[in-house]
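Appendix C. Worked example: Carboxylate--amine ligase
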Amino acid sequence: MPEHLLLVERASYWKGPIDGYPVVTAAEYLTDPVWQQKKGLRIVNLCRSQRYLGEGYYCSLLAEARGHKVIPSVRTLRDLSRKSLYSLATEDLDKQVQRILGRRHKGVETTSFSVTMMFGNSPLRDFQSLGRELFELFRAPLLRVSFEKRGEWRITAIRSLGIQDLSDAQESEFGEALQGYLSRRWRAPRQKRQGRYDLAILHNPNEEMPPSDARALKRFVRAAKKHGLDAELILPRDFARLGEFDALFIRETTAIDHHTYRFSRKAASEGLVVIDDPDSILRCTNKIYLAELLKSNRVATPETVVVRGGGLDELEQRLDYPIVLKVPDGSFSRGVYKVENRAQLEQVARRLFKDSDLLLGQAYTYTRFDWRVGVLNRQPLFVCQYFMSKNHWQIYDHASQEKEGDFRTFAIQAAPKRVVETALKAANLIGNGLYGVDLKETDTGVVVIEVNDNPSIEAGVEDEVLGDTLYETIMLEFLTRIEAGKTPVAARTAGSADSAEGN
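Step 2, the predicted output written as structure tokens:
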């Protein structure tokens, strides 16, 4: 029988309504190798600090990387972080809300109301059906749902709570709800399906370093037309128009706290085929998640240490200088720092810890170039060498006028077999979307540096060998997925956000 684990920020927060289930602090789960190696865990994250890059957020993130089933998943935490995201899913519930509250408050001058849901259960009988619907949408143990009457009653806010938010009077009720939830079989939430044949390509002409230049975008549009897709270049301001399309292709650098994720999440919620899908963005944009995922699946990487506040001594003990220190969600060599000594380490770490509870320390591994293997639907698409920028240790040098190094593109069969195989193993842990895997060849073997959900595809670089075939291959994949009548973009791995969420 699978083992359950309850996570809290402090042991003193646990009110103890149920015996027999281990209670572990977030810090223990994040740092103790026992939990990293344990398989088959079902985790209920009861931390209140679930903000982006907070400790509770990392608990759900690393649970997914370790192949544990967890609620709430990272996708749920992100959905609940912004009304613009969760309101996409709650619009269909407004009639039910009006019916319940219109009847409950008939003749009463009440304009606001809130209720706490525990695993989809409500203390108010007439809210039980709505509670189950909300739990189907947002698998969070504790939700506070707020309603306001603005002509008609509507849901105005949904917030995930921690166990310390419960009152003494709610202890028994929570215990019963938790016991009932853990005794049931866990399953994935319902998925929506999508329609056909119009493709939106999201780009930003003002982006300094876009993943695709103007010439590449034109080639995508031309390739789409060849395969019967009507492709349109859309801008960030076109968010409200997503419902007009059958698929979304994001050609703007992705990030979690950014409109690119909101575009992806809305597209997925409306049943569009989408690349980059929201699960891939969640996984690839966080280097700590990737490090944990690769380590758990025995994919070689430079020696890596997850660093918490106060953990610099341990980092020094495990890695020699120079050390590479990374923020979890940097891109294009941003947020990556090489430190030569303790003074530099403390200075950089102090600055980075202001934005993230965890950092990544990595053994410095210099090579003249990085390999980049493009992967689409679990198959290699292109292979490049990216050389380090002149007189710099990275491909991109943002302080120099000559910002990036040279490149060389290979036919897949001409690239080293172990490089391509390692890249496929890493990318396939994320899903079956479009990825760019960065690797280094060292004296001890090939190591993976990171997996990108939004790889660069520029005219004259990644397409140097395949030419128009590169663009047509990607467009044909969109067409195939649209015609299949389902959305296979989300990962089917054990650690996926869908399979990671329980019933």
